[in-house]
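Team,

Forwarding the record for the chain on the shared tracking sheet. I've put the sequence and predicted structure together so nobody has to dig through attachments.
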Amino acid sequence: MPTAIAVTSADLVLAPTDQQTPTAALLPAPDAQPLELALNDMNVLLEQHGHVIAVYPANIATAHERRLHMIRSMLESDRIALLKVDLPPLGVAVLVRQLRQLSVCDFSVGVVASAARLLSHYIHAGALLSTVTRLDRVPVSLKTHAKSWVPGAQFGVLANPNPQLVKIGTGELSGPEFGTHLLVAKGQLQSDWVTETMAPAWQVQAVHEVALPADSPGWWGTAKMIEFAAFLPDISVVYQLVSSVRREICAWCGNELIGDRCGLCSAPLRGQQNQTNGSGVLTRGTPTRHGS
């Protein structure tokens, strides 16, 4: 059985893009599930899958995060990875789906877990907002705050991989330099800017509409918004990207890792840093063979 990917909210589980992609397990909040049941559910996942990679957003409730660490501690299990991801809700959902896809590939659990940091750099996550007065996830200047009070003003914001903020009509968001698909989740804002202006400028290959995650209005500071995330849609390209990074053995837990930190125990890599040929893996729209 593949490594289990788990999430803290059901709306972080996007529909699979193929029949091979498994779903994700749900790890409810403390007020939704007693600790005894939570421990039992985790035990079942470990028995069935061997390892569990739990992915949760950085803005999760403190009690929920404590519950996750408590479960791992009480079970005394080094087979549970806790990945705290600092992405907007839709970006987290995209990353979760990519990890679900990788879980059925021929990668070890350590590689899948540590791949989360690598893949996050290739997710362009942002939103179209009617106001930035309550936005605290991306730097906002006093001048932009003042513009936010102008009736009808709208702002394009990119939170990842590099923060950007533009007033619609006065600038453009810099997009990915490789082929992507675009997920769009509509809040209470009526606009076609994301699909009719930004998507063509980014040369996205396809646009898919999905439901807005429940945490999105809180993350962006307003319900009058449209969230979006551009991502690598082809699992073969994602596979090549992960494969292009040299694998190391964690000196602490003995699992494989890529990058500079173990995805399972979070121990930093000792000695020489990993090297990647990832820049040669991606081109706009077409994958290239590693090493070519």
